[in-house]
Amino acid sequence: MTGTLAGRGRRPGPIPPQVIAILSAELPTLAEEIIAEVQRSVPEYGRQDGAPKPPVFRITVEQAMTAFVDQVSGGRDSYERRDELCRELGRSEAYQGRSLDALQAAYRVGVQVAWRRMAHVGRMRRLPSGVMTRLADALFAYIDELASLSVEGYLEAQSSADEQSGAHRRLLRLLLRPGTPGGALAEPAQAAGWRVPDEVTMVALPARARCVQEELDEDVLADLGDAEPHLLIPGRYDTGRAQMLRGALPDRRAAVGLTVPLAEAADSLRWARQALALVDAGVLEDGGPTLCERHLLELWLLSDRALLDQLARRELAVLAGMTRSRRMRMTETLGAWLEAQGNAVEAARMLRLHPQTVRYRMRQISETFDEQLADPAARFVLDAVLRAHRLRERRPSLR
């Protein structure tokens, strides 16, 4: 559905007035059927939060069908309103982050529904085959024309958005580059129309995440073309910014880093990406988005897997000669006891055991970890190692 406007200027042969009257009677319900079928058949429109917006999609369908009947009846009215609606539909799709494939699929579904209805009416009313052939030719040429107009609007919006987002991407990449002096940001920030903030919050997105850029605040920088897409939010992530992300990210999957001084933006992004990886691994729950500030301990404990393995080998070396079942029983009990700050009753509740069972096990554990449990610093390290071990047990890939 590209190239010239296939249907412009082409008129079908004369359609009898009684056929025009029959088609006009079908218009009110036909538009509803087309919209429902597009939402059912095209996945991008099937999601509730991605559904076509009535002001653009619904009005375009209604106007298009009305204009088609007028055209085949030989009407000479101007179709400027219809043409602009089709272009606006294309622009809206680009702003919503949907692809041309989805837009063209919607048109294909629309013409199929329209022709199916016409063919049914033609059979029911016993319309002549010659009339039905002219209607078919007119309808498919007409839809090509509308699709071309929407593609025109889509490419126009995409070109405009690419120009602005390109300046934002260059600025964002410069900002995240190690060793970039603060003064080097002034000129590219001015060129991008962006005010340099004191603090920023980075947001990590999954690869190929759909982002509705028109929902982003004007001061948010985005690099959606990166292998690991990300956003920069000037200032803190507050309620307003949270609402913005809900609108911009239909799939809700994201991780929000910590608010840091501008020069430390790369750290905020690194933590956000680490949190997103832990969500993907099943260690952290998908918070839609996940906030790093709520998972600082997990991020710290799992920040260096190799170093954690070395630390565990040293701290848990006394368990090396035990059977796997006994080793798991001891680490589980010791971990709960440390988390409960030595309270056997609380540790028993966590383990769903009788307090006497916990006390019995702890007597054995105390003999094994005698020196470590007596030293506050060593006890802290043991607690950290065992917490990290429990987190990694949630997902075998992190062991």
Topology record:
Layout: H1 17-41, H2 43-46, H3 54-72, H4 80-95, H5 100-125, H6 129-176, H7 186-191, E1 199-204, E2 221-223, E3 230-234, H8 239-248, E4 255-261, H9 265-280, E5 290-291, H10 296-301, H11 305-315, H12 324-339, H13 344-351, H14 355-368, H15 370-374, H16 376-393
Parallel strand pairs: 4-5
Antiparallel strand pairs: 1-3, 1-4, 2-3
Helix pairs in contact: 1-3, 1-5, 3-4, 4-6, 5-6, 11-16, 12-13, 12-14, 12-16, 13-14
Structure description:
- The structure is a single chain.
- Helix 1 packs across helix 5 and helix 3 (54-72) runs antiparallel to helix 4.
- The protein has a 5-stranded mixed sheet.
- It has helices spanning 17-41, 43-46, 54-72, 80-95, 100-125, 129-176, 186-191, 239-248, 265-280, 296-301, 305-315, 324-339, 344-351, 355-368, 370-374, 376-393, and strands at 199-204, 221-223, 230-234, 255-261, 290-291.
- The model is unreliable at 1-10 and 48-54 (pLDDT under 50).
- It folds into 3 domains: 17-161, Globin-like (Orthogonal Bundle); 198-301, no CATH class; 305-398, PucR C-terminal helix-turn-helix domain (Arc Repressor Mutant, subunit A, Orthogonal Bundle), CATH 1.10.10.
- The two termini are 52 Å apart.
- The chain is built from 16 helices and 5 strands.
- It has 399 residues and is mostly helical.
- Residues 15-176 form the PucR-like N-terminal domain.
- It comes from Actinomadura darangshiensis.
- Residues 331-388 form the PucR C-terminal helix-turn-helix domain.
- This is PucR family transcriptional regulator.
